[in-house]
Design goal:
Largest sheet: 6 strands, mixed
Distance between the termini: 66 Å
Shape: globular
Number of strands: 6
Strand order of the largest sheet: 2-1-6-5-4-3
Length: 306
């Protein structure tokens, strides 16, 4: 007969193995809920602590238990995160994640992952956002979504339907990835040259530029909107902003993006979302805290693909 200590160690090893196999999905849920790798990691760590301390013999389906735990923790965190974002300096954008090199998001699809979608999802209630993520990104059945968000199955269907409608109302059909990359490449070239006409030609009439600095670096503190206004805004800083910059193409949140560094340090990662009308959104992540993760995964030291 095994000693109690050996039995306990074996049980903990089994718990750790089970958790490790599910961790990518748990991180994927938490990240889509919160738009922050750091906050998602905290949620996953808390889920592990609860799993470690729980009576695991009473759990028939560890995957369902841990998805429920993670989602409910994320819902609670999102409620407090919203109050923090009310005092955030300037526009808020998600913390970008390198989906080209890091499989940690654990999604069967790339749904509810693009930066533009995560921004739209900020307008959903925490419960709507949870239901939308579970259904669109991970294809959970409505019955299980209902259990996780503590609602009836009919209410779970309504949550998903309402979230889909609210996201769709604010988004035109996106272009294919190859076209998005082409537009981003053309945008980079025109922005570096300060080419006003070239920029205007790329933009949809209602294009919006969002600069997320969190007040840590100098940046526009309100969105800049309109084809001509955005083009003039970019041209105004072109002569100095790109001096000494090196560029690396990255896949951030499933879309082509560009990481720019100067003297070996990242100063911005930017991407665009586009429809058949042209570039609709330019998203500049400038907050050093949000650049740290993707810069570590994809350090830029030379000019690539510009």
């Amino acid at each position: 007969m095994a000693a109690p200590e050996q039995s306990s160690a074996a049980a903990l090893d089994e718990a750790a193995s089970t958790f490790a196999s599910l961790r990518p999905r748990l991180f994927g849920i938490a990240y889509r809920m919160l738009g922050s790798s750091a906050e998602a990691e905290d949620i996953v760590q808390e889920a592990w602590l609860r799993w470690q301390a729980y009576d695991r013999d009473s759990v028939r389906d560890p995957g369902a238990f841990l998805a429920t735990t993670t989602t409910r923790l994320a819902i609670n965190d999102l409620r407090s995160a919203r109050s923090r974002r009310e005092t955030y300096i300037g526009p808020w954008l998600p913390e970008p994640v390198d989906t080209g090199a890091d499989p940690a998001l654990g999604a069967e699809t790339g749904e509810a992952l693009e930066m533009a979608i995560l921004v739209l999802m900020e307008k959903l209630s925490p419960t709507e956002r949870a239901a939308y993520v579970l259904r669109e990104a991970f294809h959970y059945p409505y019955g299980q979504i209902a259990d996780i968000v503590q609602a009836s199955e009919d209410n779970a269907r309504q949550l998903v339907s309402r979230a889909r409608r609210r996201v769709a109302e604010q988004r035109r059909e996106a272009v294919r990835p190859a076209e998005q990359r082409r537009l981003l490449s053309a945008f980079l070239a025109a922005a570096r040259e300060g080419d006003l006409a070239g920029l205007e030609e790329l933009f949809a009439a209602d294009v919006v530029s969002y600069s997320d600095s969190g007040g840590a670096v100098r940046a526009a503190r309100i969105p800049v909107a309109g084809r001509t206004t955005v083009a003039k805004f970019i041209v105004a800083f072109a002569s100095t902003y790109w001096t000494g910059a090196a560029f690396t193409w990255v896949e951030a949140n499933g879309s082509a993006s560009v990481l720019a560094c100067r003297d070996g340090e990242p100063f911005v990662m930017f991407t665009v979302s586009a429809s058949g009308d042209g570039i609709e959104q330019i998203m500049w992540v400038m907050n050093p805290a949000k650049l740290a993760g993707i810069a570590t995964a994809r350090p830029c030291s030379r000019e690539e693909g510009a």
